[in-house]
Amino acid sequence: MPKGIRDKVAILGMGCSKFGERWDMNAEDLMVEAYIEAIADAGIETKQIDAAWLGTAIEEQHVGKSAVPLAVALRLPFIPVTRVENFCASGTEAFRGAVYAVASGAADIALALGVEKLKDTGYGGLPQRGRGTVNNMTWPNLSAPGSFAQLAAAYRAKHGTPPEDLKRAMAHISVKSHDNGARNPKAHLRNKINIDTVLNAPMIAEPLGLFDCCGVSDGSACAIVTTPEIARSLGKTDLITVKALQLSVSNGTEAQHNSWDGSYFATTRIAAKRAYAEAGIESPRDEVNLIEVHDCFSVTELVTMEDLHISPEGRAVHDVLDGFYDADGTIPCQIDGGLKCFGHPIGASGLRMIYEMYLQMQGKAGQRQRQELPRVGLTHNLGGLPHQNVCSISIVGHYDG
Amino acid sequence: MTYGILSYGAYIPRLRLQRKAIAEANSWFNAALKSQGKGERAMCNWDEDPVTMAVEAARDALVGQKRDGVSALLFASTTFPFLDRLNAGVVAGALSLPEEISSNDVAATQRAGTSALLQALAGRGDTLVVAAEKRDSKAASPVEMQAGDGAAALLVGEGEPVATLLASATRSADFVDHYRTIESGTDYGWEERWIRDAGYMTIVPPAIASVLEKAGLKASDVTHFCMPAVLPKLANTIAKATGIPDAVVRDNLHAVCGETGAAHPLVMLVAALEDAKPGDKILVAGFGQGVDALLFEVTPANARQTGRLGVKGHLARRREEANYNKFLAFNDVIEIERGMRAEADKLTALSAMWRNRGAVTSFMGGNCTKCGTLQYPLSRVCVNPNCGAVDTQVPEPFADKTGKINSYTADRLTYSPDPPAAYGMIQFEEGGRWMMDFTDVEEGDLEVGRPMRMMFRVKDVDTQRGFRRYFWKAAPAGGSAGA
What is the ipTM of this complex? Predict the structure, then answer.
């Protein structure tokens, strides 16, 4: 096993735009909004950044290809800038690029920025995307809700879960996230909802109703990273460092081999195990204090609680309904409101999650601040479809060095 | 070894439009339709056309038959989706017929089906004859009320035929009872009384007399008279004029299916074969710019035809459709607002289609000769996590396998011509799976573990370029061809 990234890289500063229907903002404006906060927080100047990574996924809807849009928006001084795209993990991939650059010594200070401008499509929901010339010939015209809804069918079949029990736990997840989002000024959706609203909402893709789906928003988030030594030399104390960064990518097993039953994310299970090992975590249920997961749909969050090895297999419904993941529960999940209330500007989401960890660990999360400062936090992105996806997991925490 | 019809099959789409719905919607304009609002007509699902129906009818006919012996394919229709692309070629690909076969489209007349069958019976080698029809029609038109969509297929060749041809007769005449051109789009027809008197009654009886004379039989020897004609009692009038007993005039399936155009003589022939006893004499006529008359004798081998749905089985595989608007929308008679999601580009790269024809058209997967894992599609590296061997896969056909639903949804967000879009993971127990579209299924019928069979369907329609592409979809098993 490689030694890994643990405690080699510290977060120097972070920023996050207001998420929402930003009708008056281009993607470039959103980048600047997140960046201004991050650079001020870092206490450095733009010319001190050695390299940058841009995460965008549906670039044809806004900035177009390449890393040029980031360099232009921030007037980066002809430094190396790279654009990364890996479905919904694009933001975390940008972070991984910057962190690895610092850890390797290739850069002293690196920038990761994710952005997506989704609200220029003219219709609701995620934009239609190309799937590739050959895939288009055989794949269903599947939507994101239609793909993730299938988890519910397979989960019910595997665990014998009555449909109404599963639907109720899914509804609890959405109600919980709206409670949290209502306390976050940067969230898109800030309204509280109740169980009946979720259960009675129009059906989008059986069994996912409207309130089982996350919002669709514009937004950007940004991280500036460096070594712990440089961070200290710049006057930072109480460092938040990266403990683990893992990525697992489907290789066709789930899509083509009958060893996968459709009720869980094979990638998440693998990435989580590797991340815990990298971070030195033996019992995640006891050691992780806060999680932000990829709640594109309520059912995704539910099965992810098991795939992260926090809820035992088949027990997520009970943990959810017991309030284990509520803001005042044992391990709050989506204490910032999650994708549910922030929406999912693809490239920004992963960095937005890390931003919440960064705030909570420093006691800067305002109304939604956990009483006891979390020490170990996990973020999770799941991009693609349950049967073929990329899963990124990052673990951040207080510096032990 | 004798020459004749070796096997037969049919396909009638599952949806049956209630004629009452047509009449109720249109009788404000044409009051005469009120009295015609009885029974039902077969109606293609949005993803069906003559090509897909031909494939299903052929699969039905080929149950228990070796496909590698087929040396020719004749596809008859007046409603081919492609004007310049061999429609029979698509059918041959979907059936995984050998590349060495000859294949032809037979078109442009309502007797294209019988002419194709005659051509096959005159030839050598095993020939698959398939006829399919799906006619466009204007709202409130006679064709809309009388036509049905459907297909039939017959395998002709050496072996133990279920029926042999005793004699045939053909007459050609440029009698234009109706026509259809690119400009007209739909049928333009002349007065029915003239069609009856100057057309059918003048052209058909001499051909029947001729075929009986050639066979050395009397009209009273005929035990099944298949005479497609939508005009009420016309078949009986022809029988009377030629001495054929009225009791052997076969039902033209108007009440349950409608008239399937160029396919209808063969649909009626298949229906007759399903009922026939050894020694029966079946007379089938195809009328259109003349007439084909074919007289068959049924053999004892007919009793051994099992495992197919045929006309009867497909008529029983039925779902009533009372929504006339849906029929109009499926057939582009009305322009429905499909929403912005329907605007997604559906360009097919023809080069990629050709390169992937095995996987896409033939639903061919792979079988790893090292570990035995079946997989779809065939790929260079085995998908088995414990194998991963390179270049070890041989082609493995999946089209006739039955799979089971592993996961599913009914999606109301994505664009579908018939929402919700049902799709999910289909798992084949012996190995292999694919996330695929479902068809001919109701939302309430979806459940994990449900057996599903594969059907060849229109994947989507590229309205920008007038192209349609085909792929396989999963439909509830039971009532199936080959599965």
Answer: 0.94
